[in-house]
C-alpha cells in the first residue's frame, strides 16, 4: 500500500503542501511510512518552510513511528538547513543512533550560528563515541574555524586530518587553505597550498582563481601573485575573473611593473574590451600611482558603467586631483550615467583633499535634493574631514552634533585627524574620547593623540596615553614602506638594517640629508613622541622607512625614472618635507602612496599642495 502514496501527490499539476499530502493519505487510508515522511521533509527543506516542517514532525510523533537513523538525519538536516538550531538540538538529543551524518549535520548547524566552540565540542565528542569524522565532517569544521579567534581549533582539525590518513582530496585541501587564510595565518595557508601541490593536485582554473581571490582578501597579495604565476607557468587557461583578482593584488601592492605585464597578457588573451577587466585596470593603475595610464584605459573603453566612472573619480580624489575629479563627475552626468552613493563618496573626498569647501557643501546638498540619495556614514565623514582640514573645526563639531544618528568612529576620527593638523588639543581630547569609547583597541587613535600632545609639548599627556595603551594591551602598528624594483618588492621599517645593501642605503640617506639641508631643509621634529633634546629627535626621524625606501630606489633604478613607494601608515610630516627637497636635488619624481592617498613630489613641490 505504501507505494500508492507517491502517485497521489505527483499526479497533481502543482505539488500540494506536505500536510495536505498527509491529510489526503489519511483520508484514503493509505499507510504512511518512512519513505513518505522522508520525501515530505526533503520538500520542506527545499522550500525552507519551517511551519510545514514542524507539522510533519508533529505528525511523525503522533503516529507513534520511531524515526530510524535515516529519517532522523533527514529531520535534523531540515532544521539545520532552515536555521532552527534549537529544534535541531532537540532532534539530535532524542536520536538513539547517531552516525557520521548526524554529527556532521550538528557541526554545520553550530557553524551557521557562529557557535564554533560547540561545533568543536561535537567534533571531539563524536570521536569519543566511536564515530570517525569523514572528509565532509572535516570540511564543515574547517569552515566553522575560518576566523582568527578559532585558529587553535582549526589547527587541531588539521592535525586530525593528517592523522586520519584520508586520501588526497582537492576540496578538503582547498578548505584547509581557506581556513588558514581567513584566520590570518598566511604562512600556514601557503604551506597547505604547497602540500596540495606535493600531493599531485594541479592548480586548475577554479582552485587557482579561488586561492588568488582569497589571498588578496586576506592581505597576502604577494602570495596571490605567486599562485597566479604558477598557473601561467603550468599553462592553465586563465579567464577574466583570474585576471581581475590578479590586478587587485597588484593594486594592493602598488606593483606597477607587474600590473603592466598583466595588462599585456590581458590584451593578448583578447579580454581588453571587457567592461569588468577595464574597470579593474583603471583601479590598478590609479592605486599604483599612474593616473595617466588609468585615464588612458578609461578613454579607450567602448562601454562604461557607473563603476568605471566611480573608479576614475575615486582615483583622482586619492591623488589629490580635486578639480579634475569634479570635471569627470560632470562628464559622467552629461553621459547620462546616474551617480550613486559611491560616486558621492569620491566627489566629497575630492573636495576634502583639495580644500574645495564651497563645492563640497554644494555636492553634499545635492545628494538628497537632486539625486534622492540618503547620506551614509561615509558621506558625513567626508564632510567632517572637509571642514576640519580647512580649519573650520567648530563648524565640523557642530555638524557632528546635528547628525540624525550617533556619530561612528570614522566621523570622530576625521575630526581627530583635523585637530592634529591644526594643533587643537582640547577638541582632540573630546574627539579622542569618543573614538576610544567606540574603538578601544584602535591603535591609530592613541598614536594620533600622542602626536598632538607631543607637538604641544605636553609630555604628561603622551605618557598618559602610552600607559593606557599598555594597560589595554594595544600595540602600535609598525610603519613599513615598500618599493618595487625589478618586479620584486623590498620592504623597510624605521632604522631597518636587515636589507643586504643596508650599509650603502644608510650612506645614501646620510648624503641626501646633508644635501637637502644645504638647500633649506629643516627637520620637522614636532611629532617625535619622546621628551629628548633636538639632536636626539633629529636622529629619531633620520632613518624612517620612507627615507630608506627612497634611498634604495635612487640606488637601484635608472636615472630620470619615477620612484614609487608605498607605506601602510600615514606619511610622516618630516618625510613629506624631505621628499620634496630630494625630488628637487635629484631631478626625479617621487610618488608616495600611504594609507590615505598619494603624494607626487616633483621639483620640490608636492601635488597635495601641503594640504594633507
From TrEMBL:
Record bears the keyword Repeat: yes
PROSITE patterns: PPR
Superkingdom classification of source: Eukaryota
Signal peptide: none
One Pfam family, short name: PPR_2
PPR repeat start and end residues: 99-133, 169-203, 204-238, 305-339, 340-375, 442-476
Keyword vocabulary terms for this entry: Repeat
Domain DYW, chain residue ranges per copy: 520-612
SUPFAM superfamilies: TPR-like (SSF48452)
PANTHER family for the chain: PENTATRICOPEPTIDE REPEAT-CONTAINING PROTEIN
NCBIfam families: PPR (TIGR00756)
Protein name as catalogued: DYW domain-containing protein
Lineage: Eukaryota, Viridiplantae, Streptophyta, Embryophyta, Bryophyta
Amino acid at each position: 500500500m505504501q507505494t500508492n502514496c507517491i502517485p497521489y501527490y505527483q499526479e497533481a499539476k502543482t505539488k500540494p503542501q506536505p500536510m495536505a499530502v498527509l491529510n489526503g493519505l489519511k483520508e484514503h487510508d493509505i499507510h504512511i511510512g518512512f519513505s513518505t515522511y522522508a520525501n515530505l521533509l526533503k520538500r520542506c527543506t527545499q522550500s525552507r518552510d519551517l511551519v510545514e516542517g514542524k507539522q510533519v514532525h508533529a505528525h511523525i510523533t503522533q503516529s507513534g513511528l520511531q524515526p530510524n537513523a535515516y529519517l532522523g538525519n533527514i529531520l535534523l538536516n531540515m532544521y539545520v538547513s532552515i536555521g532552527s538550531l534549537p529544534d535541531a538540538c532537540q532532534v539530535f538529543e532524542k536520536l538513539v543512533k547517531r552516525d557520521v551524518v548526524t554529527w556532521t549535520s550538528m557541526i554545520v548547524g553550530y557553524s551557521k550560528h557562529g557557535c564554533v566552540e560547540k561545533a568543536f565540542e561535537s567534533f571531539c565528542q563524536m570521536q569519543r563515541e566511536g564515530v570517525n569524522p569523514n572528509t565532509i565532517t572535516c570540511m564543515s569544521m574547517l569552515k566553522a574555524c575560518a576566523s582568527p579567534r578559532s585558529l587553535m581549533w582549526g589547527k587541531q582539525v588539521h592535525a586530525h586530518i593528517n592523522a586520519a590518513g584520508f586520501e588526497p582530496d582537492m576540496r578538503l585541501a582547498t578548505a584547509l587553505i581557506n581556513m588558514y587564510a581567513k584566520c590570518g595565518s598566511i604562512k600556514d595557508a601557503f604551506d597547505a597550498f604547497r602540500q596540495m601541490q606535493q600531493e599531485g593536485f594541479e592548480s586548475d582554473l577554479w582552485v587557482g582563481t579561488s586561492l588568488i581571490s582569497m589571498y588578496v582578501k586576506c592581505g597576502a597579495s604577494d602570495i596571490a601573485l605567486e599562485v597566479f604565476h604558477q598557473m601561467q607557468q603550468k599553462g592553465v587557461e586563465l579567464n577574466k575573473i583570474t585576471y581581475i583578482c590578479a590586478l587587485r593584488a597588484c593594486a594592493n601592492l602598488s606593483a606597477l611593473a607587474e600590473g603592466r605585464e598583466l595588462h599585456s597578457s590581458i590584451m593578448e588573451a583578447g579580454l581588453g574590451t571587457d567592461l569588468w577587466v577595464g574597470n579593474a585596470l583603471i583601479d590598478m593603475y590609479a592605486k599604483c600611482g599612474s593616473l595617466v595610464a588609468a585615464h588612458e584605459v578609461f578613454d579607450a573603453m567602448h562601454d562604461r558603467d557607473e563603476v568605471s566612472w566611480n573608479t576614475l573619480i575615486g582615483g583622482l580624489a586619492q591623488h589629490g586631483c580635486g578639480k579634475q575629479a569634479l570635471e569627470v563627475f560632470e562628464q559622467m552626468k552629461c553621459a547620462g550615467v546616474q551617480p550613486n552613493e559611491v560616486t558621492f563618496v569620491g566627489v566629497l573626498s575630492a573636495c576634502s583633499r583639495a580644500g574645495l569647501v564651497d563645492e563640497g557643501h554644494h555636492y553634499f546638498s545635492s545628494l538628497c535634493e537632486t539625486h534622492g540619495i540618503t547620506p551614509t556614514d561615509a558621506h558625513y565623514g567626508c564632510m567632517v574631514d572637509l571642514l576640519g582640514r580647512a580649519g573650520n573645526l567648530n563648524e565640523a563639531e557642530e555638524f557632528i552634533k546635528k547628525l540624525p544618528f550617533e556619530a561612528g568612529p570614522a566621523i570622530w576620527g576625521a575630526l581627530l585627524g583635523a585637530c592634529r593638523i591644526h594643533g587643537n588639543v582640547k577638541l582632540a581630547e573630546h574627539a579622542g574620547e569618543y573614538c576610544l569609547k567606540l574603538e578601544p583597541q584602535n591603535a591609530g587613535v592613541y598614536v594620533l593623540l600622542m602626536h598632538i600632545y607631543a607637538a604641544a609639548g605636553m609630555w604628561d599627556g603622551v605618557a598618559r596615553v602610552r600607559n593606557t595603551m599598555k594597560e589595554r594591551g594595544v600595540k602600535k602598528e609598525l610603519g613599513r614602506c615598500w618599493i618595487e624594483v625589478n618586479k620584486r618588492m623590498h620592504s623597510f621599517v624605521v632604522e631597518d638594517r636587515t636589507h643586504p645593501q643596508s650599509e650603502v642605503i644608510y650612506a645614501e640617506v646620510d648624503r641626501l640629508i646633508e644635501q637637502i639641508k644645504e638647500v633649506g631643509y629643516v627637520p620637522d621634529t614636532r611629532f617625535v613622541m619622546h621628551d629628548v633634546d633636538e639632536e636626539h629627535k633629529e636622529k629619531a626621524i633620520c632613518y624612517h622607512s620612507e627615507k630608506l625606501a627612497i634611498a634604495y630606489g635612487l640606488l637601484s633604478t635608472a636615472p630620470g625614472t619615477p620612484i614609487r613607494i608605498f607605506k601602510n601608515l600615514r606619511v610622516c610630516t618630516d618625510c613629506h618635507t624631505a621628499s620634496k627637497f630630494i625630488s628637487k636635488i635629484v631631478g626625479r619624481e617621487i610618488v608616495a602612496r600611504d594609507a590615505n592617498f598619494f603624494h607626487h613630489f616633483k621639483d620640490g613641490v608636492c601635488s597635495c599642495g601641503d594640504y594633507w
